[in-house]
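haha ok so turns out i had the wrong file open the whole time. this is the CORRECT one, sorry everyone. sequence first:
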Amino acid sequence: MAIGTLVKQPDGYTAFIPDEFPSTGLLDFPPAIIAKAAQAERLIGKLDGITHVLPDADFFLSMYVVKDATSSAQIEGTKATIMDALEMSAGVSVKETDADDILYYIKALNYGSKRLSSFPFSLRFVRELHKELMTGARSSHFADPGEFRKTQNWIGGTNLQNATFVPPPAADMHNALADFEKFIHINTLMPVIQAGILHAQFETIHPFLDGNGRTGRLLITLFLFERAILEKPVLFLSSFFKKNQQLYYDKLNAYHNNKTNDWLHFFLDGVIETANQSIETSKKITALRESDMRKIQALGKREATSGVLFLQHLFKNPIASTAMAVNSMGFTRPGGQKLIDRFVEMGILKPLDETAKYGKTYVYRSYIEIFND
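then structure:
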């Protein structure tokens, strides 16, 4: 089924002009797509159920977000790692990195999750999300944060003539966005299929000068969250897209080359794989928490009480220092260092730099490694 056509423009380049959306036949899915979508939604439900019984779920969610933010930024060329982002967030980073790209993504996701409690999923919401993502970012001078583009952009190549793909010109873009917003409010589709189509259509329209990929990937999770398929935004596909980056691009190209089912099969495979991995991650987190809680409970009563609170903080940001224990946990400096020393003795924390003599930073490496798998 066709979703648009390539049209020669007055300036000589060829741009993609979307048909009225959704086009005739787009929503007539073959049985294989329906079956795969049903499996995906069953696994999303299982994952959502696990997060309900996961202790300190909101703390663990922070690391899921960091992982997704890192993968999404890396797709766009960011070199920073999860550790770079955690160190920058904890205020202990001393090296030059582009980890701020990751932190802006986290800020935008947190903003979007809260905003949806009082505001509808709409074009205005999409613009607000982009503004949070791009304001202050390295490329923000080019991105025009929160504003749909007024000029032509392109993907790949060095100019409009040799580009891999040229999205619709601004006038056609606004027509496509109006259809896109109407499609958001259709409530007769399986949400996981609708999320997949929304992402591909958004990337086809490419309505911003920069940040389209990261915004589009945020919209997947936030749409499922808004539809209450997820009670917490715990399904993040960026790692799957990063692992299969060229295939991700190929399948998006297939979508606007009118092979929409090729894209949907890939997208649903990603949901299934990611949900399964997240379920396993949740089990590993629970096992690690129980193991480390047993170590802490073996301490004296006062130390155990402080240790439990400290461990909970490490689940949110697994980078620790004496200054963090003082500022975030309210410990005295000697008390904070003593507790950190206890955590090192128990094998929960390890020094980030064994050679440092002063102002040491410590890392909850076993926890980070679960997310790095």
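Residues 98 and 182 are 37 Å apart (CA to CA).
again sry for the mixup
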